[in-house]
Write a structure and sequence with these properties.
Distance between the termini: 37 Å
Shape: globular
Largest sheet: none
Number of strands: 0
Strand content: under 5%
Number of domains: 1
Helix content: over 70%
CATH superfamily: Amino acid/polyamine transporter I
CATH topology: Amino acid/polyamine transporter I
Structural class: mainly alpha
Number of helices: 19
Length: 493
Amino acid sequence: MNNLNKPRFIISALLLITITTVVFNNLEASSMFFSSTQRAISEYLGWFIILTANGFLFFSTYLLFTKYKNIKLGGTDAMPAYTYTNWIAMLFSAGLGIGLLFYGVAEPIGNLNDYPEMIKGDLSYNAGKALSLTNLHWGLHGWAVYASLGLCFAFASYNKNKAFRVSSLLGKSVENNKPLAATIDIIAILTTVTGIATSLGLGATQINGGLDHVFDIKLNEFIIIVFITLLGLISVCLGLDAGIKRLSQLNMLIAIVLLLTVLILGPTIFILNAMVQNAGAYINQIIQLSSWTEAYNDTVYQNGYTLFYFTWWFAWAPFVSLFIARISYGRTIKEFVVGVLFVPSLIVFIWMGVFGNAAIYQVINNIGDISGAVSQNASTALFVLYDTMSLSMVLSIASLILIVTFFVTSSDSGALVASMLSSKKGADIDGDSPLVSRVTWAILLGVVAAVLLAAGGLGALQTAVVIFGVPFSIITIFACRELYRSLEEELSS
């Protein structure tokens, strides 16, 4: 308890409790508020969100070609604490898991159904465009956000001996202004909780949808959240190495087996051909797609797609970036950027390529009704895909297990990170982060997810991400500016 920063911890917890109480007691009004707020932000700030996402990709890539690329996080004698395999597994499990399972099928088919510039009757063109958009939403741009802020955290902590807090990334003028520093850290905590709660809400809806579709078992999503939160609490108490690391290894093992199974059982040659074509299309179209603002379209596609995904990445940034920084001691800046930006993006392309193209193959060949399933209830899309495959029951059960383990990993690591952000030092996630703090945040994550689901389901989850993600992106911009100054000082000293 000695390392608990009580003002940050208490104020953040009370704000979350207050917000969730107000929302829960005014569900209808809250739903209307979430809907109108998301529309307003998309209409007036869409250009900013897209420009900012591109800026982070440019910044992180630029660092690979600078004189700073060989600087070690922790100093010249620092040695990595984890192998490449464990490092990649942990950052990937914490940074994405649930999203891939929920949107691996739903996202490409959703794009196919909703993207306004599809060519009627040209399914070949439309399918390629759907996967290019999917790669845009889940690939380099998102991981560039993590790489940029994660590097800020890692360098500030390991090379400048600063606390694992967002306010520590913004220079002495902010650090010395205690009210301002506390406000920024509280915003970071609220953003972290909201971003993770969104993923937990998606996980709960998919577990419920899967149980209903496969076993005809209908559960209350709140019961699911309570159960998973309890599992997360157990993992939290075990700590980083005993909890998150082992769960991450299990996640990656199940995910790899599931991926290979779908590839083998599905239209293998079609998927492989399509993935090669998708890669070329993405590279060819990345500038156009990543700068498209829907300016000449009287449509609202980006409201539920590009802008939501980019702000979701922003909202997850304090959580995932800090966690990645925590496990990246001893890496060079070049290793860090390559490992955080390109390796996970490649894994995403493969995952979306296999599951997305397996689903699109069904659309092209009129197998089942995957398009209708996505339109009616996106949480069942993955299981509808399995219906036409052999071993469908095995695949469904494996996917449900994987969703649960990803769910627990996100809850666990999210609670740890929120605890670090509300600690005095925050340098040692196991030793310095108080158990009572970690338990509190694990419980609040579940509560926020449950209340947001009650207040408007997926729409409320999306809006909460946008509300907190946009202001935090501004904080991240200033953090990157300070990092660049610090790197210059490091070499000149």
